[in-house]
Design brief:
By secondary structure, the chain is α+β, with helices and mostly antiparallel strands. It contains three helices and seven strands; from the N terminus they run E-E-H-E-H-E-E-H-E-E. Helix 2 runs antiparallel to helix 3.
Length: 126
């Protein structure tokens, strides 16, 4: 308990009031929610360092997840992170990619915007 000393000009004696410290200093605790999505990129995306470039871009943006080549010639993965960087990563996957790639289509599935915590600690190649 924290004591608060109050004096009044009209009252010559000192009065001591006590109240819990928690009522004196209330703190707001912000809860962070994260975004996530799965992706599959089609086109000329294997043999052009797409996975390496994806990892580099993910680290630059501060998102986590994974990326891998498929036997059908596409690149798939999952992205998790704060909403703005996750959206920037989605744009990069859909429209940019590495210089040697030719993206025909990028399918985004399983979009979520309400993750309480991240399930990855980094962005990795699988």
């Amino acid at each position: 308990m924290r004591s608060v000393l109050l004096t009044s000009a009209s009252v010559q004696s000192r009065q001591v009031f006590t109240r819990p410290a928690s009522s004196c200093a209330r703190k707001r605790v912000a809860t962070m929610t994260y975004s996530a999505f799965d992706f599959e990129v089609f086109g000329k995306v294997q043999g052009v360092f797409f996975r390496a470039a994806t990892i580099k871009e993910a680290k630059k943006l501060g998102v986590v997840g994974h990326v891998k080549n498929t036997s059908s010639g596409t690149v798939t993965g999952e992205v998790q992170g704060e909403p703005k960087p996750a959206s920037q990563m989605k744009d990069w996957l859909q429209h940019k990619g590495p210089s040697g790639a030719k993206i025909d289509k990028c399918s985004i599935t399983n979009e979520k915007s309400d993750l309480d915590k991240l399930t990855y600690s980094s962005f990795e190649k699988r």
